[in-house]
Amino acid sequence: MTLALYAPLKPLDHPDPSGDRTIGRELAAALGDQGLSVVVPSRFRSRWFSKRPSLWLAALAERRRALEEASRARVSLWLTYHTYYKSPDVIGPYVARELGIPYAVFQGIYSTRPKRSLKTRLGYECNRRALLAARLVFSNRRQDLVNLRRLLPEDRLSYVVPGIDPNLFTFDGQSRRALRHAWGVTDEPVVVTAAMFRADVKTESLVFLLDRLGELAREGVRFFLVLAGDGETRPRLAGLAQALLPGRHLFLGRVPREDLGAIFGAGDVFAFPGIRESLGMVYLEAQAAGLPVVALADGGVPEVVRHGVTGILTPPGNAAAYRKALAWLLADKVRRRAMGEAAEAYVRAHHDRAQTYRPVAEALKRLSRERTTGRGSG
User: How far is residue 349 CA from its own chain's centroid?
Assistant: First the structure.
C-alpha cells in the first residue's frame, strides 16, 4: 500500500528542527516500518494562509501538481499531518476527492476562536472543511481530542499515544564520561536543557529556568548547566546565564537529533519548564536516555511525563514549587537514578513508536481498502 503524506505547516525535511517536525518524522518512519510505502506529493506551505493572498493562487496550481504526483504514485490514501487554522490543508481534500481515495488527518486541531476575526476566518474555514472531509482524524494530545469532538463524531476520531524510537537515545557510559570530562565537570550534578531559542514560549521557559537556577546558585546549591539549542534569542539567554551562573554553564549550540542521546546521557536532570507546551517530544527523548524530568504540568507535558515516577511536574506559574523540585532532585542522587531508570523503562513500555503507531498503520490499511468516489470537501 502506498499513501501520500503531506505536511502543510512545514515539510518533514525542513532544515529547522522542532517538536512538530520530530513528530512528523517519527510518524513517517513508523508507517514505513509497518510496511507502508510513503510518498510526499507536495511541499506546499500554507502557514498564515488567511493573511497571504499570494498563497491563494499558488494553492490552486499546487492542487493540480499534487494531483498529478499522487496519481503517478498510485496512492491509495492521503494522510495530512497537522492541519489547523494557521496552516490549513487546502490540497489534500481536493486530491483525495479527485482520485476517489480516503482522506485522513494526523494531529488535526480545531478551535472556534479564529472564526471571530476576519484575519483568521479564512484559515478557520479551510481547516474546518479539511477536518470534515477526513474519514479519520488521529490526535496525539487529549485536549485536542476534546475540541475535535465539537466538530466530528466519535467514530471518526482516534487518540494516539506519542512515540519515538527509544534506541536513538540509549545510554552510553563511555560517552558520558568523555563529555563530562570535556565540559570540565567532576562530581557535581549536570542539568541539561534543550530547545530552539525562539522569541516565544521557548525563550520564556528558558528564562524561567535560568532565574530558578540562579536562585539555587545563590543558595549554594552545586550543579552545572548545559544548554543545547540555538536561535534568535541566544544573545539574550547567554547574557542572562552569564549574569546568573558565571562559570557554571555551557551553550552547545544546535545539536543534531542523532547526537542528543549522548548529551542527555551525560546529564543528571533534564529541566525545561515547558510553558504552554503543546506536547514536548524532547521530554520523551531525555527520559529514554535515563534522565528524570523537571517541568510544569502545563499543556501536553503530563501526557509524556509521569509525575512522581519519571519526573516532577509543578503547577504552571509557581516559581517556588519549580525551584524546590529542582533543588530536591539535585540534592538526592539516589532519587535521581531511580527516577531516571523509571523514565527509561516508561518510554520503552509506553512510547515506543513501533507500538504506539501500529494502530495508526492498521487503521490506514483498512481505510485504503475502502476507496470512495466523490467524498471530500472541495
Answer: 19
Amino acid at 206: L
Question: Would the pTM of this model clear 0.85, i.e. be above it?
Answer: yes
SS3 244: helix
Please state at what angle helix 173-183 crosses helix 257-265, rounded to 10 degrees: 80
290-317 pLDDT per residue, tens: 999 999 999 999 999 999 999 999 999 9
Report the candidate in 42, 66, 46 with the shortest Cα–Cα distance to residue 123: 46
**Alpha carbon distance, N-terminus to C-terminus of the chain:** 25
The residue type at 318:
N
Chain centre to alpha carbon of residue 344: 19
Cα–Cα distance, 111 to 331 (Å, whole number): 43
H or E element in which residue 83 lies: strand 77-83
Which residues make Cβ contacts (< 8 Å) with residue 164, sequence separation at least 6?
Answer: 22, 26, 281, 284, 285, 288, 347, 351, 352, 353
Q: Is the dihedral of CA 171, 174, 180, 182 positive or negative?
A: negative
Question: What is the Cα gyration radius of the chain?
Answer: 22
Please calculate the CA angle 224-238-229 and round it to the nearest 5 degrees. 75
Tens-digit pLDDT profile for residues 233-261:
999 999 999 999 999 999 999 999 999 99
Residue partners of 163: CB distance under 8 A and separation at least 6: 26, 30, 284, 351, 352, 353, 354, 355, 356, 357
pLDDT digits (tens, 9 = 90+) for 124-138: 999 999 999 999 999
Question: Which residues sit opposite 84 in a β-bridge?
Answer: 87
Query: What's the Cα-to-Cα distance from 76 to each of 1, 2, 37, 172, rounded to whole Å?
Result: 7, 6, 10, 42
Q: Which residues have a Cβ under 8 Å from the Cβ of 216 and sit 6 or more positions away?
A: 223, 323, 326, 327, 330
Q: How far apart are CA 297 and CA 276, in angstroms?
A: 9
**Residues 286, 236: Cα–Cα separation, whole Å:** 25
CA–CA distance, 174 with 189 (Å, rounded to integer): 17
Cell 512515540 sits at which residue? 163
Which SS3 state, helix, strand or coil, does residue 27 take? Answer: helix
